[in-house]
Each structure stands twice: as structure tokens, then as C-alpha cells.
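Q: What structure does this chain adopt?
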Amino acid sequence: MIPQSELDRIIDGALAEDLGGGDLTTEATVERGVRGRAVAVARHDLVVCGGPVFLRVFQRVDPRVVTEQMIAEGAGAKAGDVLFGVEGEAGALLAGERTALNFAQRLSGIATLARAFVAAVPEGSKAVIADTRKTTPGLRALERYAVRTGGAKNHRNDLASAVLIKDNHIAAAGGIEHAIARARARAPHTSRIEVEVQSLDELDVALRAGADVILLDNFDVDALEIAVGLVRGRAVLEASGGITLDAVPAIAATGVDVISVGALTHSVKAADIGLDLELVR
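A:
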């Protein structure tokens, strides 16, 4: 997970969207002091993720709320399984419900999809599944945590984390050779140089220029196989660009090292998790 202070900042911002003006419905219908217990229930099979975030939401609404996680992070859950439980004043539980579910549904959706992509890599393949920076603004730390919970890897976290020369950098620098040479001269000695290429001709240029990692953008399977044969282990090869779950086995079989999938975070379907509340007598 991320540091508690950062998690609380994210949660408080999300709660402010819902509770900035109070909770009119709860205040109008529920008496103060009424206690309740609510459980989060999986409506379909999923990989559990975001429990600490879900539970922390209610504690930010009311520190007296008692919380419990029934199924561990990263574990599989079946439809009908109880994932998390909270107990406290019913008003606090109702106030935090939507925000808590939004977090848990999205993070569990990401973890579930990541697990599916990882499972699609054939046994014996060296390819790893990685995410990209195509994350929800402000939620990158949480979404990347969900990717890891699902068993996939994280790509560079931000623009300061690694050198990744993409098409617009190449255009601005005056070509692949110039971009790589400048990066090599200016980047820390501990940093590998990755460059994006869009053809086998560009791959050859990048290889001769000394790229450490080469991102093969929107290569079909035949082109990926040729690229692997040309490189022969002299650089790490990353396949990327519109990769679907069905395509993973064939892509992994070409021998690439990394398969990066933006869809893990930018197009994920939220998991269906419901919150069932009952009064505590």
C-alpha cells in the first residue's frame, strides 16, 4: 500500500466530493445514535483488492467505526463472499458507503483484470505483464498497487523514474540516434535507455544506437518474431499498443520480455461489490 498520510489525502478528497455539503438524505431519515453493521459482498468472482482503502474511508468519516477484512488482498473471491465488514453509527456507514465502494470496486476490477492477463501468459514464457502510465489522475499509486496485487508488474512510475524516448521525443530531438546519444550523455549512469520504435527499420537504428530497452509499438505477431530474432538478447524487448487478453499467448510466444497493457488501468471494468447494512440492536 501507500503511506498512510498519502492514502488519507486521497480519501479525504474523495469524501469531500460527496460530503462537502453534508448527507441530506441520511440526516433527514436516520436518527443519530442508531448503530448498524454493513458487509461488502462480491456479486461475482473477483480478485480482492482495496480492503485497507475501503475500511479507512469509514474511519475518516468516524474514527469510532470498527472495521474488519474477511478475505485477504490478492485472494480470489466467489460471488456471495463477504469481503469486508464495518460497524458503527448507521449515519457514518451511509455517508461513507459510495466512496468506499468506488475505491474497492475499481481496485478489485484492476486486480482481477491483471490476474487474467498474467494467467494468459503461457507456462514457460519469460514475458511479464506490466501496466503503463495511463492511470486515473490522482489515483496512480492506488491503481498501481492494484496491478501488483493482481500479479502484474509496474512500468515507470512517473517521468522522473526512467528514460523512455517516445515518438514525439524523437521528432523533437531530430531522430532516434540523436535522442539516444543525448540521453546517454545526460541521464544518470544507473538509468537504462528505452526507446519506442514503430518499424523494423527503426528497431535496427535503435539497436545500433545502443538502446538498452526497445518498445515495439503496435507490432503484429510476425513482426515481433522477426524483432526477437534480430535483437538476439542484445536489448530488452517490450511489446505494447492495443494489446488484448486474447492476444497475450501469441505475443508471449514470440519471445519478448515485457508486454505492457494500458487497458489494465485506463479501460478496466469496475468489479461489482455491494454493501448490505442491517441495524445492530
